[in-house]
Amino acid sequence: MAGMGTPRGPEFRSPDLHDHRPSGPPSSLPAPTALAGTARTARRWPLIATAGLVVVTVSAGTGAAAGYVTGHGADDAGPPFASGARPAPSGVPSDLVGAAARVLPGVVSVQVRTSAGGASGSGFVFDNRGHIVTNHHVVSAGGGAGGAGSVSVVGSDGRRLTAEIVGSDPDNDIAVLRVAPSAALIPLPLAAANTTRVGEPVLAVGSPLGLSGTVTAGIVSSLDRQVRLGGTVRQTAVQTDAAINPGNSGGPLVNARGEVIGVNTAIATLDGGGSIGIGFAVPIDRARQVAATLIRRG
Q: Which CATH number does the domain housing residue 167 bear?
């Protein structure tokens, strides 16, 4: 089993596990982190199997090449293309193509640098005041709010902006950054409460393995999956089969209308591999409340 970097990130535990923590190896695999200035040697990850699954969180990726992937398998009905957009290739649902075009300008790569290394993940524009929502475990490499790390974001136009950590909530794995407002950073619409449905098509957008602007498609697999994502209390999460990989953490999970329904946080893997079609996102209702609270506290 090849390693993917130094483990970092919140805990995921299957709801089938007992509430007490085992005395042996860690019960989860936190997110892999890209370390700056160190040899890129593979490292083995600690492992515990639960019903044949090893569950890890995702945040870190390396590289800056752009990637773009669209999925298949959703209804072909949906909002019309923006003026000048090319028709979808045969077999690609036009609603998802249109959603991807609307969402990408509001998604950023998040990069953290410290004297000890760094990490990278994804985020999305929350409002027109320059607030960016991402995962706590992405920015925790910089020491969280008030930490000594350097945090920056790179927009879809390639422009890099220095970011300030406004606040971070480890239990919900949500953090808010602030950058200088820019016309190139377009806030994403958030889905209304209780409108997400099991089986509806979704897109996971972010920078897996540093491939900025990557879009993968799937469906909502479950709405109320009980998991632990960093804290000691079980939380409900949106489960999806859209491919989520290291570097996607903090990026949006969006519906076919281009509305954010969740913040991508964790995946399940077999034998330390990549995505196997079981990913988890913080529901947007909770993420919105946490982000608003962090912004208000400033």
A: 2.40.10.10
Range from 184-193, 223-232, 261-270 carrying the lowest mean pLDDT: 223-232
Cα separation, 268 vs 47, whole angstroms: 12
Residue 159 lies in domain:
105-186+290-297
**59 Cβ neighbours under 8 A, 6+ residues apart:** 8, 9, 31, 32, 33, 119, 120, 121, 135, 137, 138, 246, 247, 249, 250
Structural domains of the chain, count: 1
| pLDDT for the residue numbered 190 | 97
pTM as predicted: 0.71
18 inside domain: no
In tens, the pLDDT along 39-97 reads: 343 333 333 333 334 444 443 333 332 232 333 333 333 344 444 445 555 555 668 99
Provide the total of helices (H) and of strands (E) in the chain, helices listed first: 3, 15
Catalytic residue set: 137, 173, 249
The verdict on residue 158 lying in a domain is: yes
Q: Is residue 20 part of a domain?
A: no
